Predict the structure.
Amino acid sequence: MKIATKEGHRRLKSNESPGDLVSSSETFGARLYKILGGEPARTFALRANLTPAAFHKYLKCQSEPTRPVLNAIAEAAGVSLDWLLTGRGPMHKEDVLLVAPESQAFTIKNLEGHQAEFKLSPKLCHLPILDLHSSCDPSVFIADDRVCAVLSASRNWIRQKLDANPDDLTLVLVDGDSMSDTIKPEDIVVVDRSKVVSPCDGIWTFFFEAGVFIKRLQFMPGKTIKVKSDNPLYEAYNINSDDSLRLLGRVIATLPFKGL
């Protein structure tokens, strides 16, 4: 892996630490605060598989991270490793294009019905919309035969609308009325997979007993989890976190399609 310096790109020497290459124009800690945005430092640290105490020292520039730690931070934040080290170049790794790919062109129709050429921007990210009503495989969350559509949007738009990292999101088509009227059948829910690091009460997508469910979960003392439906016709029940429960992500928004 090459590291950016004033002289260009060179390899990290055997006697050189990652901290030796940190740009003086902006501290490493300042860049960490920038990638956090509004996310709590503890939450990000756990999502990157780091201890909160160690991450706090990096924020305060009281300790230098190792190369594996830098890789973990860059991967969790979706930023360029070179930018994280030096502050130079594009911040987000999707903006680093060694060779600009040719945009794929589509023919679309405008409001007047006239055909127009549309080119898909390489800066868009694509979120799959999954149809999981028939899912029974706990080992695979996303499979080709379950993707019924794809939502494309810029990363900035997704961050502004959902206050979330697009890399952590999956969209799921809802089947059933157990969460009505909060979530109605055929609504599309936005699932944030990063939330499994620090679970809290809320609406979750989870795997349990060979099925995928969307329910409201309340984490009780001990290892008991109360599973509740917003539809009063469905009774609440308790499960143990040691059972076959596997959290997939917390529902943070819905995208309802309503006929007018």
User: Anything to note?
Assistant: Residues 124-255 form a domain with the Umud Fragment, subunit A fold (CATH 2.10.109.10).
